[in-house]
Amino acid sequence: MAKAKSSVFFCQECGYESAKWMGQCPACHAWNTFVEEKLEKTTQAVKKLVKDVNVTTLDAIKMQEGQRIKTEISELDRVLGGGIVKGSLVLVGGDPGIGKSTLLLQCCRNLSEQKKKVLYISGEESLQQIKIRAKRIGEFGDSLFLLCETNLDIIQEVIKKEKPEIVVIDSIQTMYSESVTSAPGSVSQVREATGTLMQIAKGMEISIFIVGHVTKEGVVAGPRVLEHMVDTVLYFEGDRHASYRILRGVKNRFGSTNEIGVFEMREDGLHEVENPSEYMLSGKPKDASGSVVACSMEGTRPILVEVQALVCHSNFGIPRRTAAGTDFNRVNLLMAVLEKRLGLQMSACDAYINIAGGIKMNEPAIDLGIVLALVSSYKEVPIDEKTICFGEVGLSGEVRAVSVAEQRILEAKRLGFTRCILPKVSLQALKSIDGIHLDGVENVQDAIQCICNGN
Ligand SMILES: Nc1ncnc2c1ncn2[C@@H]1O[C@H](COP(=O)(O)OP(=O)(O)OP(=O)(O)O)[C@@H](O)[C@H]1O
Ligand SMILES: [Mg+2]
């Protein structure tokens, strides 16, 4: 085996590899992010190895029963696509203190109650500190094992010896391998550690959860390649000042993405929120202008949210605009549509848009909600509180069809809404639904007529 020592430079933002130092990364354009890391490459005599490798056909692969393990936290199971897949590597990212360790410890508790052997490896907290959290959460079974360790080579040996079914690594940024000389948390350490865990997961059929820290931009710290290496990427997000948390699947090799799970952080741990719409709409003001309920699909679930707008005369040459919980540029675009197509003097107004509850919504179906909230605030016309709306708004002011209209309407009906403003095209494709008045609109003018006449 020949060994070749070399040193390479990695961009700490995106993982771009370069033979020499550069001021700006050509991949992500970040400045001054290149750090030198020493690599020890081993070149192997591959020809000898090839003799032991066999190819196979799909038919020859035997499926085992019970490939998925239920965590008994239904919101987590849903985001995972129906449970933990055996031998999968799941990355859980999130802001500091959002509750990643709490969620995974609760998951471990449920699994240990099912007599699954679980190993929780912490590189951040001592055993006593884990015990404090565990006390907060509740009773644990006796098949949960804890280990405080950051050396990956030792961890690998422990896993081989103990043969657990599920392993939790908290967090990947604290793990280091002695074969890599750079500091824990650096690009090559994180990549090496994930690669090793990947081999353990696939080779020994162990499901592994990895906790990953996020940078201030909100992506998992370390290279982007980390997301490519793992099977599933979950982000745990939430408003710092609100008690609820959202678990979002952004990549899933074994299930649908964009699925969300909603939790509430309480003193005794995370609780599932089974009715997110009810939760999001609590505290909605009555008879206030600039407030409307819109419906967005999050994965397979429709979620109703209150869209709030405040439009007021601007005292400056350049009006102020902010958008909390939705895309700022989209709001600007919709305001331009209102100005051009309806002649509303939006350019002289400050506008603030907020999706109440702090949830982030980026589905185009909430466009109509944003438009109606803006117009309602501009004209000081309150919208009937039992009205909901959804629809994508195009640049010529047309209201375009959205997917799964029926499911959205049924959810609105279930929550006691009596009127729904939706795209005309979607209405024509629907079977009749009793108990809720449906208004199909072709363009924003029609939609505004609906709210003005309704009051
Ligand atoms: N007694 C308590 N009552 C209510 N909430 C609590 C209590 N103790 C902790 N918390 C919540 O739990 C959060 C910490 O959870 P946890 O340690 O799981 O976060 P984490 O994402 O693992 O953080 P880190 O990134 O530091 O590892 C706190 O920010 C707080 O919101
Ligand atoms: Mg933690």
Keywords, separated by commas or semicolons:
13 helices, alpha/beta, Rossmann fold, 3 domains, binds magnesium ion, 455 residues, globular, Ribosomal Protein S5, domain 2, seven-stranded mixed beta sheet, binds adenosine-5'-triphosphate, nine-stranded mixed beta sheet, single chain
Mean pLDDT: 87
Task: Just give the CATH class of the largest domain.
Answer: Alpha Beta
> So what's the overall shape?
globular
How far the N terminus sits from the C terminus, by CA atoms, comes to: 81 Å
Number of helices: 13
CATH second-level architecture of the largest domain: 3-Layer(aba) Sandwich
Query: What level of helicity do the residues show?
Result: 25-40%
Which structural category fits the helices and strands?
A: alpha/beta
The largest pleated sheet is described as: 9 strands, mixed
| Gyration radius, rounded | 26 Å
CATH topology of the largest domain: Rossmann fold
CATH-assigned homologous superfamily of the largest domain = P-loop containing nucleotide triphosphate hydrolases
Pick out the low-confidence regions: none
| Binned strand content | 25-35%
Written description of the protein model:
With 455 residues, the chain is of the alpha/beta class. The protein folds into three domains: 7-41; 67-274, Rossmann fold (3-Layer(aba) Sandwich), CATH 3.40.50; 279-454, Ribosomal Protein S5, domain 2. 29% of the residues lie in helices and 29% in strands. It has helices at 46-50, 74-80, 100-113, 127-137, 152-162, 187-204, 225-229, 276-281, 328-342, 367-379, 405-414, 424-428, 444-453; strands at 2-11, 17-18, 34-43, 68-69, 84-85, 89-94, 118-122, 144-148, 166-170, 207-213, 232-238, 244-252, 260-266, 269-272, 291-298, 301-313, 321-324, 349-355, 387-389, 392-393, 399-400, 419-423, 437-441. The strands form five sheets. Strands 8-7-9-10-6-11-12-13-14 form a nine-stranded mixed β-sheet. A hairpin with a 5-residue loop joins β1 (2-11) and β2 (17-18). α5 (152-162) runs parallel beside α6 and α9 (328-342) packs across α10 (367-379). The termini are far apart. Bound molecules: adenosine-5'-triphosphate and magnesium ion. Magnesium ion (MG) binds next to α3.
